[in-house]
Amino acid sequence: MTKIDIISGFLGAGKTTLIKKLIGEALNGQKIVLIENEFGEIGIDGGFLKDAGIEITEMNSGCICCSLVGDFGKALTEVIEKYSPDRIIIEPSGVGKLSDVIKAVKDVAEHQPVVLNSFVTVADAIKYKMYSKNFGEFFLNQIENAGAIFLSRTQNLKEEKLAQCVHALQHHNPKAKIVTTPWDSLTGEQLLGVMEDSHTLAEQMLEDMHHKHQHHHHEHGETCSCGYHHDHEHEHHHHEHGETCSCGHHHDHEHEHHHHEHGETCCCGHHHEHGHHHADEVFQSWGIETPKKFTEQQLKDCLTALSDITLGTVLRAKGIVPCADSSTWLHFDYVPAAPEIRYGSADYTGRICVIGADLDEERLAEIFGV
């Protein structure tokens, strides 16, 4: 019986870092397949993980919430039948909805010898408030549907701020196990243990999802953008006392609601029934393949320039480029205020990917000189 672990998390939260730690420290000897679903034109993370001897299946043709039901289910079935692995780790797109991923895996599990072992969300302890406020429909869906929440970058937070973060997350998911200890202080076995311990909760959540699907429906069976089903057309899910609406807006008062009903136009300029957004309507990806060489300083300058708010909202950037002053290559990751550059192995060509909202693609190309 193949175990399936879903490790979700918003853009740049640290999913790949967690997966590498689990594989390197806790899953030695197991036959593992990692399935990534990238949002963007160019898949990057596969290059970071191939050194670990892990099979990579990347699907870059569309965002996870658009292509999941077809391509993802087919890919997962093929992986199970071809490799018969001990464990499948699924790393969804950072802008994918965890509820959608769980549903797709559950559909496959009905016909394959697999068990849905855990649903984990990695959350940046520093940026949770910003992401909750501005991209609540996606960020909060990942929080609400997780059996365990692994907080990253907690070593950079004061105890009071960390407590506030935990309290906020518990408001949206009171049952999830929350890892607050810095990962460097924990072993891969300890982190895996939290995932395994959350299995019972995962089973309960699956049962709850099934129960809601059978008994709670919108008119014509529509699903509310909050991820829950409701009995009656007029039974709304309210966002009270400053809670973040799924459209990404913040509302201060109980009666100040932001509805997208009957085709009303929402803030992103699209028409939606009940405010349900697809990732490709909210987020944008710019990617390019290039042989251009960079010195480490040039690359640092490029990443620093991404913080310019006139570019749009840059949430994530990553890439692999040849180094101008050595025979090695530069691998980089960027989240706001936390750029990282390291030396690594070569790839067939340089690749750069930037993800965000309202991006000025011409200026991005100028910044990287491509």
Description:
It is a single chain. The protein is α/β, with parallel strands linked by helices. The chain has two domains: 2-209, Rossmann fold; 283-368, 2-Layer Sandwich (Hypothetical Protein Yjia, Chain: A,domain 2), CATH 3.30.1220.10. The chain has twelve helices and twelve strands. It has helices at residues 15-25, 45-49, 64-83, 98-109, 128-134, 136-144, 159-172, 188-197, 199-215, 279-282, 296-305, 361-368; strands at residues 2-9, 32-36, 55-58, 87-91, 114-124, 148-152, 177-179, 284-290, 313-322, 329-334, 340-344, 350-357. The strands form two sheets. The chain has a seven-stranded parallel sheet with strand order 3-2-4-1-5-6-7, with helices on both faces. A hairpin with a 6-residue loop joins strand 9 (313-322) and strand 10 (329-334). Helix 1 crosses helix 8 (188-197). It is globular, with a radius of gyration of 20 Å. It starts with a strand and ends with a helix.
Short structural description:
By secondary structure, this protein is α/β, with parallel strands linked by helices. Helix content is about 35%, strand content about 20%.
